[in-house]
Amino acid sequence: MSTRLVVVSAGLSNPSSTRVLADLLTRQAVEALAAHDEVDVEVIELRPLARALADRLVTGFPADELARALDTVRSADALVAVTPVFSASYSGLFKMFFDVMEPGLLEGKPVLMGATAGTARHSLVLEHAMRPLFSYLRAVPVPTAVFAATEDFGSDAAGSLDARAERASRELASMLGATSRLAAEETPRDTFTDPVPFEEMLGRL
User: Fold this and answer.
1) Which residue spans adopt a coiled-coil conformation according to this UniProt entry (predicted)?
2) Quick one: residue 88, left, alpha or beta (phi over 0 = left, psi -120 to 50 = alpha)?
3) What is the pTM of this model?
4) Of the candidates 123, 178, 137, which has an alpha carbon nearest to the alpha carbon of residue 8?
């Protein structure tokens, strides 16, 4: 059994700093998760889905490529979600993708959040915009969110960014481990294929 990690990147350019951060978080997450399980990674770039997202909001029906992206998220064990910052919040493209999801689609899924912007003045977007969004959607945001300004991608600051990404990834792996244990504990016992021994029933009296 493997862990299915889905990466949502809302970068608008190609290449983009948003995708660079998404790739860094993904590498760190795979490394943290690989100690416990195999990891399958699938990346959803929102830029090619922009027209399909607009059509979905207007018509109510998702195009095939958007429907496949939503199904990919539905099957995920965890998400890495990264957005550029515009006007002190996540991008409209990023928000549209989560606006078209059916209720409950993200419920209980751990989410490692990331954001990029030109300066560190926008770093609070992770706490005042992204964390409330995912909490509202009943996802489980990882405690450490990772923000990267332009200067964070320089050689002098790369170590700090790597350290934050590593910490967030360890937290994601820990949350997934706890989720797996709870799921195993909550699985009801099939008394037909796994009957309770008579001695155990007597012991409960």
Assistant:
1) none
2) left
3) 0.83
4) 137
